[in-house]
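Much of our argument rests on the idea that a fold can be written as discrete symbols. In the encoding step, the backbone of a single protein was reduced to a row of integers, each denoting a local shape. We regard such an encoding as a compact summary of how the chain folds. The record that follows shows the chain in one-letter code together with its fold in token form:
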Amino acid sequence: MLFILYSNRLAPIGWSSLEDLNMRSTLNDIAKAVGVGKSTVSVVLNKKPKPIQVSEETRKKIFSAARELNYRPSFSARALTKGKTFTIGFICADIVNPYFAELVTLALKEVETHGYRLLLSLTEGKGPEQDLACVESLLERHVDGIIMISTAFQPGTKQYDYVLREKYPFVLLQYRAEGISSIGSDWQMGMDQAVTYFKGKGHARLVFLSTATPGCVKSQKEKAFATACAAQGMISDILEGPDNLDIDGVRRTGITLARTRDRPEVVIVHADSLAMSFIHGLREGGLEVPRDMKVVGIDGTEAGKIFFPPLTSIEQDRSGTVAAAVQMLLERQDDQNPPPREILLPTTFVARGSA
């Protein structure tokens, strides 16, 4: 289990040592420099409702003095005053996978626009028990809400029972649990577009390279693939890949498939990161993409766009997903008993160099 505190604003320019941190200025220092009361400085810098009128000239002087004195508000004092830690927990498998890394980056930026920090907990793909242990640890650290990507958070676990009983702010991404708010992707939209595209190119058979954690139900992506192919009268096959998003295992699958006589012309892979590894395997097996086989990823990562060849993908709205999740958490903090919500955001098929 790994925890990382993310913030772009841990220290201002000009702090070069722990001694500098200990010497940082206070509201009183700024008040003395400007010649106003501490309460006036607090109103301006903390953007409080205005019980007193502050002229624009005084506001500018206060901000100028704050910059010159390297002022930053005390995170601990703010937490004690508000009864919050102003920290949001984010649980995912790792940040080696571009998909998770990009989501974390988006989450970091989003929470900071609301004055929060991000505490990242990595499950490292060690299974449901580790996933739930990450939830437990974040709860012990009194984060103000949790965003999680995992199938492990389900009824029957003590963590799930606690969240429901305490009405704790909690949002699942891409997975669902009864009574828990969630943000997902409408994979059917993008998959329908992909199948229509390949049918228009004269292809009659499509293959979906699946990879799932043992014991999990069939993925929504795989279901959308089967539905889209059936609707278009396309032959659809499922190729069972290695379990648990095994990057190197998918590469070996690509090598094996490249050396198979009756190989497909088009393969849609469960995720962008896996599609890129699959393409490496095809190359090791002697094939070229897209000349010998067309490959499609799913998720629409920035890494896929700069891959060679640029990866064709069914893109999800990752920025919208993160923004909606953070907004849900903040709403639950303001309203102690809002009903759980499920949001499905659209997906889009984007053709690039790999297909």
About this structure: The mean pLDDT is 86. The CA atoms of residues 6 and 161 lie 28 Å apart.
